[in-house]
Amino acid sequence: MSKRHLLALYGDFDQAEAVVKELRNTKISGFDVNDDMIVKSPIEHPEVEKFLGEKPVYVQWFTLIGAVLGGSLGFLGISSAQANFFMQMKGGKPIVPLPPNFVLTYELFILGGVYITVLGFLICSALPAKRSPLYNAKVSVDNIGILVKAEEAAVGALKAIFAKHKALEIQEEAGK
Amino acid sequence: MKDIREDIAWAKINQDVMKSLENPRPLYWVILFFAVLTFGIGIGCEVYQYQMGMGVANLDNPHVWGLYIATFIFWIGMSHSGTLLSAILHLMHADWRKPIYRFAEAMTTFSLMTAGLFVMVHLGRLWQFYYAVPYPNERWVWPNFQSPLLWDAMAIFTYLSSSVLFLFVGMIPDLAIARDNMHSGWRKKLYTLLALGWEGTDRQWRNFRVTYLTIACFLIPLAVSVHSIVASDFGMSQQPGWHVTSFPPYFVAGALYSGCAAIITLFIILRYVFKFEDYMTLPILKKIVRLTFAIAMVWTYLNCVEFASVWYSHDAVSKDLLIQKMTGPYAPFWWAMIFCGSIVPLVFAIKRFQTNIPVLFATSLLLNLGMWLERWMIVSPTFSHGYYPWTWDHDQWPSMIQWGIVFGSFGWFTLLFMVFCKMFPSVSMYEVKEMVYHRTLHLKNNGTAVEQTVEQGVH
Q: Is B221 exposed, middle or buried (0-12, 13-18, 19+ CB in 10 A)?
């Protein structure tokens, strides 16, 4: 069954929080509050995360993997280059000297960490992305948007909740 | 005094910053003209040097390093300001950094790009630059991984690419604002492409916060390592004047110092040129000035440590070199370094000068002159008063070609920086909104009546 999208805009975070709380407490058939709701805000706002509930962030795992890979592959790469550098006379000194290699390993550890963190950010945030079905540029100014996806039967109830909390604007569009 | 007014409407923040992308004051074009002119002179000198060889730069034996390497260190140092303001102050939750960190990050990126050029200019034989890249040539000869010069290449590449990513990631929400507010045209297409479809969803912000914090955590040790490695280029040699234990912290302090001084200069210029008086406020300037003063005193202390350790050591050649710097042909520049680096910043200790824009502008330029002289005084005197007596009458005065390329680098940096500020938001809109929001909340929680403004959209 096709779902429709609704976007309600609010002037401050308190109103948006009240709407989210009411949506959580009200059972509306054809609308799942956990999967069908997105809150959009013009600033990073920890309170939004609080009232939406704990959601995991996995970026730091990408960081760990990137840093470990960067450091270990870097060290292996440099060491194998040194081991294959037959023309350099070593005169009894170690073929793979650890102190200077530590410096380069350290740099590559950071390089890997930063690159893969950014990759992780793009993957976890699903970026680059197409515009969502309803987008209002006011969200990038000063409005807080609540975008919901619901079956036809639930649209009326959702609109009523949005209107009750004095939405500045409600946009509606048929989804896929 | 408050860092920013709490009654600025969020819509006004967007409008003001978006206006800076279109209508700067006429001074912008004057600065751009001089930047292009200076850069053109630098290009002309480089082309001439390329055609004629390094002799025209007056670089010879024993003076194999000259202004090019000194200016390379200077630009690397300038890059540390972005890390300080963005990363360190971000971790310390210093809200006042928010209106100014973006241009500091841009400064980091462009000064690293400028520094990188000097490595090539210094080589002379540009076509052999590839040898700094870690891969073997056709005879299977690898670069020497034990050399600090190769560490330098790796560290600068890591720092430059990480800084570009840090700048870009931090700018994504603002690029989305620019995308939403720009009239159709190539710029709208560019912002749409770079904004990556950002919509400010809770999921995006959650991941954004962790990503930004993580890269900030990486950048701090990276910045310290970069300048420590540059210090190792000197410190790990046996040359008098360079073989000093305190060089890495001394270089890092010098880097932060010159970076902060440059931030004051650019703060004053951007504030006027882009009409950012509401965001780049005097209380924020005062905080940067105090920070710069503190770093200046650390730098002065480390200078004293260096002099004392040379003076009381048993290394007669190093001691002679120090005396030579103070009394020999380089003395005017050495004393100018001490004056500009240690005496001039005392102006910052006087309260009424901490917000006096003409005084601060002149002072910040003098500080940067001092920091540039510092790098020159590290590099050149050692070559003319080293271990070999035959070098002692080989004082070197850089040729016009060297000076031309050094001036050209300032034109190149200014050109990149000013074009960036006109193309991209140089004040972080979303972070300034956060700052305004936090201030409003703070006043609300303290029971202070916040006068409601008639402007729409105030939170």
A: middle
B197 vs A38, A81, A129: nearest CB: A129
How far apart, in whole angstroms, are the C-alpha atoms of residue A25 and residue B410?
61
Q: With an 8 Å Cβ cutoff, is B155 touching chain A?
A: yes
Mutation target vs B (from A9, A12, A44; most B CBs, 10 A cutoff): A44
With tokens 């020999």, the residue in question is B328
Contact status, residue B110 vs residue A64, Cβ threshold 8 Å: no
Q: Is B333 on the interface with A (CB under 8 A)?
A: no
Q: Give the mutation candidate from B206, B220, B230, B430 for the A interface (greatest A CB count, under 10 A).
A: B206
B164 touches chain A (CB under 8 A): no
**Nearest alpha-carbon partner for B371 in B283, B264, B448, B299:** B299
Task: Report pLDDT for B447.
Answer: 67
Q: Do A125 and B207 touch (CB under 8 A)?
A: yes
pLDDT at A33: 79
Model confidence pLDDT, tens digit, residues B227-269: 999 999 999 988 898 988 889 999 999 999 999 999 999 999 9
The verdict on a CB contact (< 8 Å) between A57 and B206 is yes
Distance CA B99, CA B89 (A): 12
How far apart (Å, rounded) are the C-alpha atoms in residues B337 and A73? Answer: 44
| Category of B4 on φ-ψ map: left (φ > 0), alpha (ψ -120 to 50) or beta | beta
Q: Which residue of A has its CA nearest to B146?
A: A100
What per-residue confidence (pLDDT) applies to B338?
96
| Cα B189 from Cα A47, distance rounded (Å) | 33
pLDDT at B332 over 90: yes
- pLDDT below 70 — which residues of chain A? 1, 87, 174-176
Q: Which of left, alpha, beta for A30 (phi over 0: left; psi -120 to 50: alpha)?
A: left
Chain segment B61-97, per-residue pLDDT in tens: 888 888 999 999 999 999 887 777 788 888 888 888 8
Residue B452 is predicted with a pLDDT of: 47
Cis check: omega of the bond before B62, within 30 degrees of 0? yes
